[in-house]
Amino acid sequence: MFRKYLIVLDNDKKWGFYLNNIGRTVIDKYDGYPSKNHPENYTFTWDKGRILNEFHLVLITNGEGIFESEITGQVKISHGDTFFLFPGIWHRYKPKKEIGWTEHWIGFSGNIAHDFMRNGFLNAKDPIISKCDQHFILNHFNTLFKLFDEQPFGYQRIASGVCFNLLQNYTI
Fold first, then answer.
1. What pLDDT digit, counting tens, does each position of 36-80 carry?
2. Burial of 171 (0-12, 13-18, 19+ CB in 10 A)
3. Which residues are registered as beta bridge partners of 95?
4. Helices 155-168 and 134-150 meet at what angle, rounded to 10?
5. pLDDT of residue 34
6. What is the β-pairing status of strands 82-85 and 55-69?
7. Where is the AraC-type arabinose-binding/dimerisation domain (predicted)?
8. Of 58 and 7, the one with more pLDDT
9. CATH number at residue 38
10. Domains: count for the chain
11. Distance between CA atoms of 164 and 144, rounded to whole angstroms?
């Protein structure tokens, strides 16, 4: 498991695109979900779901489960699928108990992220991208995990650039 939640400063927000959090979690079959110890504004239960005030990209690299939003209804998620979460939109998701899954996620925000949505590059009506290029995406995630682990000078802006580059894979 790996997870980092950032304190985003006003200067970071002026950059126009910034990361709020990043993580990777392995949920074994029959494990409880979601995992514990997330900040309060990120926790949810299946019964209640949640509404975030930021975007998230979630990649499933093993297993399968269900995604649901107020716009999409329930949709099956499988190994290799990515789904996006949108600010202000109710959603919930979970792995199949008998199978589990491995999830990688990035929370991001900023004017540029909202422009992606306004201009149709990210669409809450169609948030699932099936069978993504996992090698390409995981390389970007691994770069981000390393940046967040080592925290070199300027890592938050460097990470924003890596995430921005990752998103281009989904917005072509």
1. 777 777 778 888 999 999 999 999 999 999 999 999 999 999 999
2. exposed
3. 65
4. 170
5. 81
6. antiparallel
7. 52-166
8. 58
9. 2.60.120.280
10. 1
11. 11
Cα–Cα distance, 164 to 158 (Å, whole number): 10
pLDDT tens string 108-155: 999 999 999 999 889 999 999 887 767 888 999 999 999 999 999 989
What residue type is 168 in one-letter code? Q
Output the six-digit token pair for 118: 């306004």
Question: Which position has the token pair 């070199």?
Answer: 152
Among 62, 77, 64, 63, smallest CA distance to 127 is for 77
- Domain containing 64 equals 2-168
Alpha helices in the chain (DSSP H): 10-14, 111-118, 134-150, 155-168
Calpha distance 31→94 (Å, rounded): 11
Task: Say what the pLDDT of residue 12 is.
Answer: 87
**No. of helices (H) and no. of strands (E), the chain:** 4, 8
